[in-house]
TrEMBL record:
Residues 9-323 form the FAD/NAD(P)-binding domain. GO terms for molecular function: flavin adenine dinucleotide binding; NAD(P)H dehydrogenase (quinone) activity; oxidoreductase activity, acting on a sulfur group of donors, NAD(P) as acceptor. This is Dihydrolipoamide dehydrogenase. The keyword Transferase does not apply. The keyword Transmembrane does not apply. Residues 345-452 form the Pyridine nucleotide-disulphide oxidoreductase dimerisation domain. Keywords: Disulfide bond, FAD, Flavoprotein, NAD, NADP, Nucleotide-binding, Oxidoreductase, Redox-active center. Belongs to the class-I pyridine nucleotide-disulfide oxidoreductase family.
Amino acid sequence: MSDTFLDVDIAVIGAGSGGLSVAAGAAQLGASTVLIEQHLMGGDCLNTGCVPSKALLASAKAAYRWRSEAALGVDYALPDVDLGAVNRHVHEVIAAIAPNDSIERFEALGVKVIQGTARFVGPSEIEVDGTRIRARRIVVATGSRAAVPPIPGLDQVPHFTNETLFANTELPRHLIVIGGGPIGIEMAQAHRRLGSDVTVLEASRIMPKDDPELVSLLGSRLVDEGIAIREGVSITRVEDGRGGVTVLLRNSEGLEERIFGSHLLVAAGRRPNTERLDLEKAGIEYGPKGIIVDARLRTSNRRVFAIGDVAGGPQFTHVAGYHAGIVIRNALFRQPAKVDYRALPWVTYADPELAHVRLTEAEARAKHGDDLVVLRWPYHENDRAQTDRKTQGLIKAITTRSGKIVGASILGAEAGELIQLWVLAIGQGLNVKALAGMIAPYPTLGEISKRAAASFFTPKLFSSRTRKLVRFLSWFG
């Protein structure tokens, strides 16, 4: 028998980025709203994901400056890295942002916040530790967690995931990273710059979803910094011993190897948090990748929506926030809003950064064939990059022969900022002519995008036909 019964307009399960956005928006629009969180407000992004990882990367970049800024005439002493102090910096950043996601703030907005574990007890009802909640619409925003691959011996060996890494205050002598995706690469570079030896083990190739050419350039930079990257390896076993961990693997040539490290980080993907929800009782279909949703983010139970990582789509914080807007429009305004990922960007915050939107060159060729123009502009041709000695990088933009932009990738300083112009252009259907014609302030890194866009017109502008036209017009004075 429930101790309490609530009847509300919207119940949100999960107080991560997406859930918080739905709850705040619904309450401010006048809907009675309940928000349930079983652990920490702010979810993975604030506590164990985006925020702490970028804070750690900032410390690592500071430690790296002494090597790179001598070229500017400024010499630094060798950095003295105190990982305990770095850890305090990471958690001070989390604490600075946490009030925006706090229970107090959301209750002030009119949201009823309940701490506990929610489970479905019917198509439109959930229960949280004795409280029964009936809602006209329910939003599942429970996110995901680090996936632990079925490697023999791994369950017997101490290891980090992103959920435990940021509590560490001991600098690893040799960090072995299993997984060469964005999390693995970011944390590998961060620890190398802080002073650890680092080995990255990847079953296929690092950063498989990004442009291979730019990934290759990034990989070379990481190797130059002293990171060992082993691609195409198969891990056969992990063992504890000698004050650290031993990874047994079969390399790309089929030979067996042993790699010894002091610490192990598992960054091998994510798993949706669907356990303990009792989704079957609400008639909600789900699978290994998460809850199955349609383009409006509705589940098989039309009263229930799923957003963010648990919905099985792109696993980014900004996607969860985008999903929240789609749900608000569907649930409160009855608009048939649908997700549209055609201008979805993502960024890996290595140094240099790697940013991407829409199609890679290979994907564009598979879809459009030869009706493509690949636009390039290197960072070393940009004056601001030269003044700041940040000349390693390249922009690649893909257009059709008519100038329609179908994709862009950027490797280089501030790539996460520069990609946003291309996101806007693709999202609004702008022709490359619009970017080529904009006035960019000088000297800025943003000129890289303008110069790449303008290169679309270079072959025609300086063709023999154009020169003949100019000579012809000169006859008229």
